[in-house]
Amino acid sequence: MNEHNTDTTARVAIVTGAGQGIGAAIAERLHEATEERTREIVAVELLGVLTVARHVLPHLCAAGAAGRRASLVVVSSDSAKAGSFGDAASSAARAGVLGMVRSVARENPAVPVTVNAVGPGPTDTAMYRELADAQGLTGKVFSGMTRGIPARRLGTPEEVAATIRFLLSPGAAYITGQAISVSGGLTM
């Protein structure tokens, strides 16, 4: 963010999110998880995002008050809406992020700042495939999972990025407080 920019048509945009790597992502039912692990997930995936938002919002509000388009987009997860087996703490943390997005969108009605979330569903990434392998999901089971998605396939990172780009575009200036699923229809 360039604080010295005098161009009032310039945009100020922050995209944030928090998650954990493959080593931490092995499915674990909530009653089997340790207190320490549960707190770690909430600290990273909820408190991490809240902390970033708390620090960037004054800058976004100042930019909005100065007539610049200001946006905060939080990358969450579709599990915030649907839940996910072996992922209760993460799903709960990400649902908390959606609550934060909606609340912050309501907190600043006089300042033109948009605040939205993008919730990727199953997305074809190396991490997703490593997680499937680590959980023993065979190719047959993996392909069966995609049959449960109305689009009948995994999403792509490019599709998630395109949704973020749209939320940062002038065409999304009237969209705020929303959680947009990029899940091929897995959640509606």
How would you explain this protein's 3D organization?
This protein starts with 10 loop residues before the first strand and ends in a 6-residue tail after the last strand. The protein is of the alpha/beta class. Helices cover 45% and strands 14% of the residues. The model is unreliable at 1-8 (pLDDT under 50).
Strand content: 5-15%
**In which order are the strands of the major sheet placed?**
1-2-3-4
Radius of gyration: 18 Å
The helix tally amounts to: 6
For the secondary structure, the number of strands is: 4
List SSEs in N-to-C order: EHEHHEHHHE
Low-confidence stretches: 1-8
Whole-Å distance between the termini?
A: 35 Å
Helical content stands at: 40-55%
Shape label: globular
* Class inferred from helices and paired strands: alpha/beta
Main beta sheet: 4 strands, parallel
Mean pLDDT: 84
How would you briefly describe this protein structure?
It contains 6 helices and 4 strands, in the order E-H-E-H-H-E-H-H-H-E. It has 188 residues and is of the alpha/beta class.
Structural key phrases:
alpha/beta, four-stranded parallel β-sheet, disordered N terminus, globular
Secondary-structure blueprint of this entry?
Layout: E1 11-17, H1 35-65, E2 69-75, H2 79-82, H3 88-107, E3 113-120, H4 126-134, H5 139-147, H6 157-168, E4 179-182
Parallel strand pairs: 1-2, 2-3, 3-4
Helix pairs in contact: 1-3
